[in-house]
Structure prediction request, 102 residues.
Amino acid sequence: MRNLIICLAMALLAGACGEPVAADAPGDAIYAAVCARCHGGSLEGGIGPQLGGSDAASVDQPESYFIQAVTRGQGRMPSFGTTLSEDQIQRVVDFILEQQGR
Prediction:
């Protein structure tokens, strides 16, 4: 029974984490498909923390922080290291940093 509950929870979480994206999709499209559901369409936050705006805690984080968070997951955020390529992760991180004015 416990394994069934764990499998069901994982399936629900995976379904809430976004849609598949094209291998050559730009960072903004990857963000819209995979990240916006939790972090907001304008990086304003929601289920996940705010990523944009001068008062976002993540504004002071280095690029490596975002790469690791997207790749391995962090807290309640799932890992995308098996669903996005390294290049796709870099493009979405570049998009986030650009939106932060960096």
